[in-house]
Protein 1
Amino acid sequence: MTATATYMYAITRPIAPEAVSDLRGIGGTPVRVIEHGELAALVGTVDLAEFGERPLAQHLADLEWLGRAAREHDEVVRAAARLTTTMPLRLATVCHDDDAVHARLDSVRGAVLTVLPELDGRDEWGVKIFAVADRTTPAETAPAASGAAYLTQRRRQLTSRDEWIDTATRTAFRAFGRLAEFAAASRQQTPQDQRLSGAEHPMVLNAAFLVSRRDEDAFRAAVADLAAEWPPGGVVLTGPWPPYSFVPNDDR
């Protein structure tokens, strides 16, 4: 018989088991509800041959496996968020068994009961700003006539590019403050490297905003106004998402 463990997707207030009876999570396994007093956890059963400590460490270094697992995890969290206020848990949150889930819910009860009201009626939105070249951005000059001239030209280009990115970063920081006025909470995250983002231009702002649904139109309009001030493609809005960025790390 294969050893199993209990995988946790999210914590919510109590929810009817039949509400998630058709939901499938990691590896197509059924999602179920474990209730514990004022809280509930959406969980599934996973194989320790895949989610034990050693195999899991290997899988987390496998980008194909990681991408699939993250997608399946997120689909459960999104489905839960459509039903009730949801506190997403970190990918690959694994407990020994259902009893361990009860123990975890008991240990985080106070923190979760504080966080859930802050998430009620609110969604996470992401805003990324890129230093997109426009007509004022220094252009490549004609080929240099000599090696020394080439090096001088290249230093000037790099200096101009650094100054341009620095200016874009300061402008993006001010833009963050403008958008934060429409949000209940906001977070600046580390801009993604171009090799990770796949973007053509450097990212100068990677921000998350927790926005009340009643303020969504105003927030989206503010982002649209901001985008109009940047070259095309300079401002990217994503969402709405479950509030991943607004859950205390210790409780995830």
Note: The helical segments are 48-51, 53-59, 63-83, 98-119, 147-180, 194-197, 216-228.
Protein 2
Amino acid sequence: MADDVPVVRIVDTLLKHAVLQNASDIHIEPQEDELLVRYRIDGILHDAMILPKNVSLSIIARIKVLSNLKLDEKRLPQDGRFKIDMNGEKVSFRVSTLPTYYGEKTVMRLLRETVSGLHWKACVFTVKDLRKFIPHLSQLRV
């Protein structure tokens, strides 16, 4: 099936699926006979897709083009980045490629730009609780 689908659509699908599943990372790992795609969700790597080995070079090339990496460099690690806009949500991808025995491995970190961090005021801690975790707060007076 992957032979009939254009590589651009395969990569777009991988990216969108990772965003929809709230993945923090995408791992694209060449194996001896296949290309394994895994998503890190809540700290655990989950197998997402197994593709034929023959699409490996095209998929890595597409990701390198998106990330402004050198297409002809396969023997040294490279780092890059790109952004997508998915339904109004902006997502940045940090990309790392590195050589392995069976080909180049690619890891992409997803960074959502519209998600803000948790503000300290939203945490429900009493001063007594905070003193347990942070010793220098023992002088804190409220």
Note: The longest strand covers residues 89-100.
